[in-house]
């Protein structure tokens, strides 16, 4: 575990982390309770019916949500910063109406035209971006008027309450921290992400022109009680993530 101030050299933290255990992630994440029975149902519920819509899956990882969106009738454009994840996403989505390419949330998304998407899904990817304002502005450019953005992130207060994440940082600071993750096999991958105050997330969203429509601190679905009773109890006591829907 480590914590240090955010810096430009950390822009590719997601690529470094996920490239080291992409196949193990892909094998575990479709059924891993925190994903399959907690965050993913909450985010997809906020997204709603996507049949016939143009949807961008931003930070698509190995394409788990990409496949679900395409099989639900969406035309999907997906991107991720990690080449190893993209290879897995292309295999998972072979034959579906999906365009998958490499792209970095921390840089302009030039290949996505303005007003070209009905919705954007960004599931647990923004924690790897230091400055959210340019990302929210790019998302706003890409979505058509009346379209929506759904994203999920680590809960800022949950992370700050954890000394491993907080270190000696002030709640109002943005800090980069790392942890060896369990649940994906050995060796435990070392993953870094940014922790920031809630106001920076929501004000950054508003400054980019988005209107907050729904803010959710999700509860695990009932099936998680049998699959992972310890975390089911924990997540019913305090949330690990936030899920947000905003309208253009």
UniProtKB/TrEMBL annotation:
Coiled-coil segments on the chain, per record: none
Swiss-Prot/TrEMBL GO biological process terms: methylation
One Pfam family in the UniProt entry: Methyltransf_11
Superkingdom of source: Bacteria
Listed GO MF terms: methyltransferase activity
Keywords: Methyltransferase, Transferase
Domain Methyltransferase type: 56-151
Protein name: SAM-dependent methyltransferase
The organism of origin for this protein: Aminobacter niigataensis
Taxonomy of the source species: Bacteria, Pseudomonadati, Pseudomonadota, Alphaproteobacteria, Hyphomicrobiales
């Amino acid at each position: 575990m480590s914590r240090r101030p955010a810096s430009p050299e950390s822009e590719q933290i997601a690529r470094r982390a996920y490239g080291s255990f992409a196949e193990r992630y892909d094998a575990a994440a479709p059924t891993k309770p925190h994903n399959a029975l907690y965050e993913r149902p909450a985010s997809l519920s906020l997204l709603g019916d996507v049949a016939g819509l143009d949807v961008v899956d931003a930070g698509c990882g190995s394409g788990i949500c990409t496949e679900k969106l395409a099989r639900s009738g969406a035309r999907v454009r997906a991107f991720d910063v990690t080449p190893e994840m993209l290879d897995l996403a292309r295999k998972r989505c072979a034959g579906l109406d999906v365009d998958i390419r490499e792209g970095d949330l921390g840089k302009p998304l030039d290949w996505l035209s303005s007003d070209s998407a009905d919705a954007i899904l960004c599931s647990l990817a923004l924690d790897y971006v230091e400055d959210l304002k340019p990302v929210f502005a790019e998302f706003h450019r890409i979505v058509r008027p009346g379209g929506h953005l759904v994203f999920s992130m680590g809960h800022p207060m949950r992370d700050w309450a954890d000394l491993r994440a907080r270190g000696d940082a002030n709640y109002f600071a943005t800090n980069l921290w790392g942890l060896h993750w369990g649940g994906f096999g050995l060796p435990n991958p070392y993953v870094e992400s940014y922790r920031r105050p809630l106001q920076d997330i929501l004000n950054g969203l508003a400054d980019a022109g988005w209107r907050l429509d729904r803010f959710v601190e999700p509860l695990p679905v009932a099936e998680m009680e049998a699959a992972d009773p310890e975390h089911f109890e924990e997540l019913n006591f305090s949330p690990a993530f936030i899920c947000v829907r905003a309208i253009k």
